[in-house]
Amino acid sequence: MINMMQEKTDCMVSCRLETSEAKEVPMKDSSTPKPRSRRDVIHLITNDTKSPALKDRDSLIALATGVDCKSLTINYPPKVTLPVGPIYVKEGTILTLSCHVTGYPKPKVKWSKVMGSLPFKTFKRSLITTNRLKVLSIKKHDSGLYVCTGSNTLGSAVETIKIIVVSPPKFISTPPQQVNACDKLTLDCQATGDPPAVITWSKESGRLPTDRTQLINGRLAITGIKASDAGKYVCTAVSASVATSKSVSTVTVSDKRKLKFGRDSVTDYIVVERKLPAMAKLTVCLWTMTSKTDSVLISYAVPGNDNEIILINLPTKTLHVYIGGASWDSGIRVTDGHWHHICATWDNSAGQAVLYIDGVRRAQGSLEKGNVTKSGGSLIIGQEQDKVGGGFDISQSFVGELTEINIWNRVLGPKEISAMSKNREIAASGNVLTWSDVISGTKHGQVQIIDSCKQ
């Protein structure tokens, strides 16, 4: 026989034992007196509403010459448990909510949304399985209060949880930055998001210089910029710890240091350690200030040819270009003691050479067609090589100042060259040789490196 009882009510189960030889009867309550004669009647009365023994079924068994059993089923109203909210979820991802419901008879579970419908009713993006709600590709407008209701014959229970859908932060703009050495770099990172994003900065392949760095309201400021500060800076915006966006700003640093050659000498020069590749096209650009007519700006020699690439002012006071041993007299003079921006381009498909002075195309000529410059040679600044790495002539040594020497393995266009010539503080960076490669070369003699940070 099964008795149905409601939770929180009194329960009584009776067991009558008749026997000529009384034996012990195991009971739930050890304090209950045990039968001693055939006429003993024992009543077990409980109103322990918290006892786990009454949650489902209780049995009272009397052991003697026979057994009598009674089962008790406890009915109780639903109880609903949801995770603690609010829960933040990234827009476009999947939201999964589990609702834990207890009760007897087994409650029915229903999901709903305060001030709106569940997504599946309008966009068919929700799945409900047993007590679990899953929202696919959640949208910003899916934010709100979600309700889990459990119901049975004894009543119903309701719990709500707040869901906040977070949109990934979006950046307003993060343009590339160009800064001069010694100056202050400022990078702004403005990101829109709901809730507002928390912004942090980092540097790819390196660390931020903590002793020179300030971060205020998403703005990164680095003072006393050095050549080593060049690189990619990453702004990371995080909303509610779930939605993350990143933006990268590439920073180039113009090294304002200059090389000063103060005398005629065969001992003053720079050996560039960076090796040049073979090239079918090239552009050489630099800034120079000199009044000496017979002087070499750069000299590149390879075994078998000590005139592989040369820019030289000859005694004729005009600038000559050498490529692969062939020479071309531009007829242009740049030895007036003032700063000039020089770019020489060459393309082996037609053998054409072009000379730009201060951003203006001033001359063009022909060199050997189809030639390819050789790799692995010796590049020296300030002396003319008559053999690889040496054979200097004091009459051809450079006297003056040089800066921003760069080499590309392509022909730069007029607009690129013009932009570089507008201001010698504007950074340029060759893809074959950079000014940093030159300035970090091996210095010989009394060549001075002038650090404009200290001027």
UniProtKB/TrEMBL annotation:
The keyword Lipid biosynthesis does not apply. GO terms for molecular function: metal ion binding. Residues 78-164, 169-249 form the Ig-like domain. Gene3D superfamilies: 2.60.120.200, Immunoglobulins. Residues 255-455 form the Pentraxin (PTX) domain. InterPro entries: ConA-like_dom_sf, Ig-like_dom, Ig-like_dom_sf, Ig-like_fold, Ig_sub, Ig_sub2, LamG-like, Neuronal_Pentraxin_Related. It comes from the Eukaryota. Its cofactor is Ca(2+). Transmembrane segments: none annotated. Keywords: Calcium, Disulfide bond, Glycoprotein, Immunoglobulin domain, Metal-binding, Signal. PANTHER family: B6, PENTRAXIN. This is Uncharacterized protein.
